[in-house]
Amino acid sequence: MVRFEGDRIARKIRADLAGRLLEMFRSVSAPDSLWFEDRVTYCNAVLPHALLVTAGAVGDDDMSRCALESLEWLVTLQTSDTGHFIPIGSDGFYEQGSTRACFDQQPIEAHATVSAALTAWRLTGQPSWRTEARRAFDWFLGRNDLGLMMYDPQTAGCYDGLHPDGVNRNQGAESSLAFLLALSDMHQAEHDASLKPPTTTVQTVERVPV
Question: Is the residue at 2 inside a domain?
């Protein structure tokens, strides 16, 4: 990520945008819905992630607290009763007071959650955030509602979504990049913290030519 730390205009834009996001959270969130809007839609974890990155850069404790609260609420919402990652489906999303869409689950949701959780882990040092990142990443490897691999070892790509009756067999750029970026994030975290080596499945992924 290019942050342009020495650019005053870039810093002002960052502060303005993060301030707007923080104000949205303060004005919309409720005890049972710690979120920025009255709907949870697409690529959701980027919202608390953006606040976390800004809070870490400027040292804003209140911003950090709101970011962590919203991210914790989101990962709880996206954890199934049996403990696996279940992102909000794009076939209807989730509006307050209505039933959440379980499908079609999108790879970008898993990647966004991996990245946000690892940022929370780095900023707080709490290992539970690393666990959340692993839970989201494992969605790609078949720990999902249907028990199906989203990563295709034959192509090094990723299926475009998880539907009620199986995977969307198209392998678009967004989905494949979501998997590869999530994989890169996980390996970087393991390197940074001298974590246990990746599982056999991830090692196999690493060797696949892209």
Answer: no
**52-70 mean pLDDT:** 94
In this prediction, residue 204 carries a pLDDT of: 37
Residue 194's region, left for phi above 0, alpha for psi from -120 to 50, else beta, is left
Q: Which residues contact 112 (CB under 8 A, 6 or more apart)?
A: 43, 44, 45, 46, 49
Tell me if 1 is assigned to some domain.
Answer: no
Structural domain contains residue 3: no
Amino acid occupying residue 13: I
Phi and psi at 105, nearest 5°, equal -80, 135
Q: Which domain holds residue 56?
A: 8-207
Q: How many CA atoms lie within 13 A of 69 on its CB side?
A: 17
Cα–Cα dist 72/82, whole Å: 18
User: What pLDDT is recorded for position 113?
Assistant: 98
Give start and end residues of each alpha helix (H) in 125-196.
Answer: 127-138, 173-193
| pTM of the predicted model over 0.85 | yes
- Tell me the angle at which helices 8-28 and 61-77 cross, rounded to the nearest 10 degrees: 60
Residues in the chain, overall count: 210
Can you give the CATH number for the domain in which 33 is found?
1.50.10.10
Q: 118 exposed, middle or buried (CB, 10 Å; 0-12, 13-18, 19+)?
A: buried
Nearest by Cα to 100 from 45, 40, 30: 40
